[in-house]
């Protein structure tokens, strides 16, 4: 799920790990980026008392057709984890987090970066930082639509900030009045253009081969992790 939110929406790690279900509206297909997890969560933390200050103003984003199945899968997985914890008589720390450990506890940002690196290694892909997903999303959205202002609103950037991300230099503060209020509909248009392109570029899912029986418990690869 972190890779989906980072790659499709350009969200920061702290925003992804601080996203709560109370801010996700599956009925209207929107979610609010209004909280973020503290940068340094102490080891073995089970309950988050308060979130860190936002790096930018909160923003409402649409859940596209491409992204919706991932939200539903994540929700179903967590419901199953809660039920399993109850059956096993183990505690479940319900922080209401969209991305959390199997027991509901918060995940450290460093773990996300580490697992992302292992995922790229397993897939034999060049190494990039997790944060580079944000820059990739920004670049692709801008190239597909040319709408730097709406891209900035999707990312939670200032005009100057989105200019830096896209490598553009101009007087962004002179944007015309029609860009001052970016409506949710326009954000959806920009994200749909990007997500549709991602969906078309994705290779068809290959038929999975019958797994070979191995002695002992196999080590879980990063490609099997819920990223």
Write up what this structure looks like.
By secondary structure, the chain is mostly helical. The chain has a single domain, classed as Intergrase catalytic core (hpI Integrase, Chain A, Orthogonal Bundle). Strands 1-2-3 form a three-stranded antiparallel β-sheet. The chain is globular and about 50 Å long. The N and C termini lie close together (5 Å). Keywords: DNA recombination, DNA-binding.
Provide key terms for this protein:
227 residues, mainly alpha, hpI Integrase, Chain A, three-stranded antiparallel sheet, 3 strands, 43% helix, globular, disordered C terminus
Supply the number of helical segments: 8
What do we call the CATH homologous superfamily? Intergrase catalytic core
Give the CA-CA distance, first to last residue. Answer: 5 Å
Number of domains: 1
Unreliable stretches: 173-180, 206-215, 221-225
Give the radius of gyration: 19 Å
CATH topology description: hpI Integrase, Chain A
Protein name: Tyr recombinase domain-containing protein
GO molecular function: DNA binding
Region (Disordered): 199-227
Pfam family, one: Phage_integrase
Architecture blueprint of SSEs:
Blueprint (H helix, E strand, L loop, with lengths): L1 H8 L3 H6 L5 E2 L4 E4 L25 E4 L5 H21 L20 H14 L9 H14 L2 H8 L3 H8 L17 H18 L26
Antiparallel strand pairs: 1-2, 2-3
Short description:
The chain has 227 residues and is mostly helical.
